[in-house]
Amino acid sequence: MPGKTFYIETFGCQMNAHDSEKVVGTLLAEGYTQVATPEEAHLVLYNTCSIRDKAEQKVFSRLQQFKREAGKGKLFGVLGCVAQQEGEKIFERAPHVTLVAGSASYTKLPQLLVQLEAGNRRVTGLSLDTDETFDTPFTRRDNPHRAYITIIEGCDKSCAYCVVPFTRGPERSRTGESVMAEARRLAEQGYTEIQLLGQNVNSYRDPSAAGWDFATLLARVAEIPGIRRVRYTTSHPRDFVRAIVEAMDANPVLCDHVHLPVQSGSSRVLAAMDRLYTRDQYLERIELLKTARRRYSITTDIIVGFPGETEEDFERTLDLLDKVQYDSLFSFKYSPRPNTAALSMPDRVPEEEKQRRLAILQEKQRAIQIRRNAELIGEVREVLVEGRNVPLGQWIGRTSDNRTLNFTHSETEGLVGRYLDVRVTRSGPNSLVGEAVV
Ligand code: SAH
Ligand code: SF4
Ligand code: F3S
Predict the structure, then answer these.
(1) Are residues 164 and 268 in the same domain?
(2) Same domain, 156 and 279
(3) Cβ contact 159:188 at 8 Å
(4) Could you tell me if residue 140 is inside a domain?
(5) Residue 415 has pLDDT above 60, yes or no
């Protein structure tokens, strides 16, 4: 068995992806080497997601594959949201797991690793009572051009369906100074795009005397020399205020895209979900964007089949799609989650009905996207080149408004990381095709 090698697989949202970058950096600094398969690794880590039941099941099916490795010296760690949610119960369910640690404990990883290597077979890092510093000197980023920065951890909302407040704990904002220092350092290292992360970035509040709100932070990060694009995710509609749109309007470095999860188009369901806004209040936020100086693409998340959702409620959601004309949406069947308020709500929607609503919703949105994307044919958009699709002979680019725009160019190498103008020539439901403007 080779010593000090590790393998990590990551599930879930961008916050988890970024957490894994921190974990990888920490392990490398501790002298571990990363390997590409769990078979080769001495330490196998799963950074897990618990947002829906399916996501949670994934880690247990992965662990199941290695049940026979128990006692052979290979170490298994469960990190992230399932770890925080299930805690020590994971040791019972998968006895070969030796480490269970939630996202608030990654700064303590070096100590946890020492315990593991010393032979402790039930090592835990589960405290949410964190004195987290957000400073991540070891972060090993996956992408050399686009970097994530955590600005706020946890969530103080209590949406009736959601595990996040339990898996990531209460809201903690990072100081503006610390965010700026990391962003400047990244700019110096050649990163040109920054994505500010949090479960609810809009409720960011600088805990230092400066007391910046989110709009101020956005404006400041966008002024850093060398940074060409700034994105952020996720916004909660309740806290999405005019000042944010004004900051975006004032500086095109702040990308032409807002992800504003609505969850439902019915005020009745929104109240049951405890989302803290009505349909009309949500539409007022959308109006802020539609009447702004720039054209912003708007995307959302929707849950179908929340307990008590009637056909009429669902139709309100379909009607909302017509009204808003989203550029893209993520849609989910409601999944009952442990600890959440919705778990005990009556009038569960049957699985087949959820599936039916999901299909109708997705079909409707597909038609909207086909139409909206077709409107862009003939326009020129700047893309950040993200990669190359060799079989198709195309480069893969991303526009400021977060569309994938694949394009042809006379060069066949060396464009990744560059910003180029591309004319859109064709469109589909999920992407655009074009030619570089030379
Ligand atoms: N903090 C973000 C999103 C968190 S989770 C926000 O407030 O919007 C990402 C998405 O997963 C949510 O927007 C929601 O649409 C979906 N989701 C969360 N819990 C879910 C559940 N129990 N069942 C189905 N979808 C869920
Ligand atoms: Fe979950 Fe609601 Fe918090 Fe988003 S705002 S993380 S959906 S509780
Ligand atoms: Fe999943 Fe945790 Fe993110 S539950 S969506 S990984 S915050």
Answers:
(1) yes
(2) yes
(3) no
(4) no
(5) yes
Residue closest to 316 by CA, chosen among 271, 259, 257: 271
**Is residue 137 situated within a structural domain?**
no
Beta bridge partners of 48: 80
Predicted TM-score (pTM) of the model is 0.95
- Expressed as residue numbers, the domain containing 26 is 5-125
> Do residues 59 and 155 share a domain?
no
Judge whether 47 lies within some domain.
yes
Residue 51 Cα, ligand 3 centroid: separation in angstroms?
6
Residues 304, 314: contact at Cβ < 8 Å?
yes
119 burial (CB, 10 Å; 0-12 / 13-18 / 19+) is exposed
Q: Which of 84, 163, 203, 236 to mutate to test the pocket of ligand 2 (most atoms within 8 A of CB)?
A: 236
- Candidates 13, 48, 157, 168: which one to mutate for ligand 3, based on the most atoms within 8 Å of Cβ? 13
Closest-CA residue, ligand 1 atom 11, reads 51
Residues 180, 308, single domain; the answer is yes
> Token pair of 91, please?
């040791």
Number of domains forming the structure of the chain: 3
Distance CA 377, CA 9 (A): 39
E-only strand ranges, 229-344: 229-233, 257-259, 297-304, 328-333
- Of the listed ranges 128-132, 332-336, 371-375, 404-408, the one predicted with least confidence: 128-132
For residue 139, being part of any structural domain is answered with no
* Domain co-membership, 161 together with 219: yes
DSSP 328-381: EEEEEE----TT-GGGG-S-PPPHHHHHHHHHHHHHHHHHHHHHHHHTTTT-EE
pLDDT for 66: 84
Q: How far is the CA of 205 from the centre of ligand 2 (A)?
A: 17
